[in-house]
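Changelog excerpt: complex records now keep ligands as SMILES alongside chain sequences, and the structure block spans every component. Example after the change:
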Amino acid sequence: MTRPTTSRSDVAEPLDPAEEPLADDAAARPARWRRALPILLATGIFLVLWQVVSWSGWKPEYLLPGPTVVLGELARLASEPSFWVALGRTLTRAVVGFALAVAIGTAIGLATARSRLLRSAIGSLVTGLQTMPSVVWFPLAILLMGLGEQAIMFVVVLGAAPSVANGVLTGVDQVPPAYHRLGDVLGARGWTLYRHIIIPAALPSYVAGLSQGWAFAWRSLMAGELLVVIPGAIALGNRLSFAQEFGDAAGLMAYMIVILVVGMLADTAFSAAARRLRERRGLATPAERRA
Amino acid sequence: MSAAAPTAARGGLRLRGVSKSFGRGDSQVTALGDLDLDVAPGEFVAVVGGSGCGKSTMLTLAAGLETPTTGSIDAGGKVALMFQESTLLPWLTAAGNVELALQLRGVPTAERGALARQLLGRVRLGRHVDKRPHEMSGGMRQRVALARVLAQDAAVVLMDEPLGALDAMTRDQMHDLIEEVWLDAGFSVVFVTHNVREAVRLADRTILMGARPGRIIHEQRIQVPRPRAMESAPCVALAADLTQRLREEVARHDEADYFEI
Ligand SMILES: Nc1ncnc2c1ncn2[C@@H]1O[C@H](COP(=O)(O)OP(=O)(O)O)[C@@H](O)[C@H]1O
Ligand SMILES: [Mg+2]
């Protein structure tokens, strides 16, 4: 067969001028402070309502102090080393417990996703475990392991791991058939297919699982610190029960604020990670893009 | 990579008595029945046929993604497949998508980056290597997919309506690009399309497929010299003839039967 020549190396790119990429209208994005404004406003309204209820005399001031008193108490607590010891211990437990849950949940999720036998054996178990409030495990954990760190870790891991495993499983299940095909065409099989195509494709669902897992870990940990009081080991949860026992409403509320803030910070971090992931793939919703 | 000195023709594809059935019993569908097809090394074959006549099934079998019910398939080298939807991985940039194909082909890490850039340059995306799929137009995405096919260094390239989702102008430009890349690389092409004029514009030979079961009912060698213009008189005449035959074939089937599903 003769091969006629068509020399087109002189054609300048782009091939077609109509194909300039869509402009990212960064200018239309509201400034950072405009995003923060509604949050500040809501916080302000909440503080005012709290103050009004406190002033109304519905409960005596020593039982229901106003925000100024509580924030003052928080500032005082923050100047004491024991506050930081408690916060440090709680955060360490949370991070270690969550890390363990992520390792175990991911391993179980991947194994379950890849093996039909494992899937039918423990797939529904994972879902079942997820429906069980993790506090329910504490009596058994205490019975088996005594009042100690182990009991707390056990429940934190049990609370969080199923969500993580489920995130992996859902993510792998929802990988479009076209990607499996592409893997076939490109010659990616077995672990290579997982590494380059399946796992990255499953990442958004995995991050959702991590986020939910963290929320369960944090709840389980707070329950654990309220229930499992280890002598000498101060933590946010047991500060809370001490404050209640001593009728220290201001201190109690101050610790509640700390717990709330930690939870919100973690949630913000997970949402930001999820949004970044979706943005990079062009999956962000219009609301996300405006935010 | 100059078009003046094209690579020697390679590839080639041979299908012998290939058939494919899906399902069993009453719900069995014979998508392909006893199909013979020879594609010479370096030859560009375009396949047209009504919807559901088994074109995609034939490519899937030729690519080795599924096994035929009967018959044998021999390809003279590695086979690459390009789809209508580009199936670029959305978490990778244009360069990343091409590099993945290089990596899976076993190209050493140190060479991948430069090679991917070079391939994207060949499809005129040299300035867009760091774009992600969602930042590109449909035409740009198909050019990345074409660069990825080149990265696979296949001897046989199968394309399943790769331009079906593009507007007319972008299509014309893709025709030039596909032709250029093919002349340059020397592989065999089987190009499925529902656009008869596109088939005549690109192919050395057109094949018309009929349905129930899928089979070849007409072949035509296209001897119009390249470069061709789709609206030139010889192309228009050949396209008119092929369109007529396609109409007759479609009319042979009850519409409801033909377009069932
Ligand atoms: N995986 C499958 N399972 C069952 N039937 C299929 C499958 N793939 C294709 N078919 C059937 O085979 C026939 C040919 O399909 P296809 O090759 O996709 O046609 P074309 O690409 O020419 O439009 C159709 O009737 C279709 O319904
Ligand atoms: Mg098809």
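Chain A has one domain: 65-283. Chain A has a mean pLDDT of 84.
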